[in-house]
Amino acid sequence: MHTPIASQAENTILYEPSLFGKPEQQLFDPDYWLARNVATSIEGGRGQVIFIHDDQRNWVLRHYHRGGFIAKFNQDRYLWQGAEATRSFREWRLLAKLVDLDLPVPIPVAARYVRRGISYQADLITQEIIGAKSLATLLQKASLSPTQWQYIGLTLTRFHSHGVQHADLNAHNIVFDETMTMHLLDFDRGVIRAVNQGWIDQVLQRLLRSLNKLKVQRSIHFNMNDWRQLLTAHHKQLNY
Ligand SMILES: Nc1ncnc2c1ncn2[C@@H]1O[C@H](COP(=O)(O)OP(=O)(O)O)[C@@H](O)[C@H]1O
Ligand SMILES: [Mg+2]
């Protein structure tokens, strides 16, 4: 289906009309929501994340922030390489595809870029996964059962067998809703590519490093037996 795009001056919005309504710029402005007392703000992996709750909306608004060394002198500007190459449009398009594939990810609501000459800034709005608790948070309180670790492995296989490569799979980007259904967040820089054991192993190793790091830093309930449950379930379903 064709997704509408609305442009005004240097701002362009890609959006789902049934969710977003009229494509107004102010809907991407955290202060617009905070002033109405329908928003809360948290510190995400890289920057501020705004949760918007009113009678029509359960949205999560994220501004794209740079990471690493570059962030010291350039917090949120990216090099312009065309509309479809922007961080927000790419993530929106990927999420839309994953939703079509019935994979458990947030439903994309709207993506925006604001272009100024050779650079742009970007924002993304998704439907909130209500009651989402990250794997990191859950493991701080208690361990998960072998069945739950297998379930995580099986869910990751569903992504991997479609060639979906997450660019930053860690224990914060795996979340569980109120029914303990798992979802993956944060598809910035994610891609769909040919299924290949090399990148899949790298994605899993990244998750393992994240869990091991949290074990040292926050004493989460995690051990290598848990990991073996995940890995065995993952590999059993995936035919390389
Ligand atoms: N659709 C969503 N539903 C619920 N929580 C979300 C959603 N999107 C983001 N979040 C919350 O915001 C945090 C940061 O978002 P994320 O997409 O991981 O970006 P980043 O890590 O780059 O800041 C997540 O760890 C999660 O707590
Ligand atoms: Mg994240």
Helix content: 25-40%
CATH class of the largest domain: Alpha Beta
Q: Return the string of H and E elements.
A: EEHHEEEEHEEEHHEEEEHH
Q: Give the overall pLDDT as a whole number.
A: 95
Gyration radius, to the nearest Å?
18 Å
Indicate the low-confidence ranges by residue numbers.
none
Class derived from helix and strand content: alpha+beta
- How many DSSP H or I helices? 7
* Number of E strands: 13
- What is the CATH fold-level name of the largest domain? Phosphorylase Kinase, domain 1
Give the second-level CATH assignment, the architecture of the largest domain: 2-Layer Sandwich
Overall tally of structural domains: 2
Cofactors, ions and other ligands in the entry: adenosine-5'-diphosphate, magnesium ion
Major β-sheet, in short? 8 strands, antiparallel
Amount of beta strand? 15-25%
How far apart are the first and last residues' alpha carbons, in Å?
32 Å
How does the overall form come out from the CA principal axes? globular
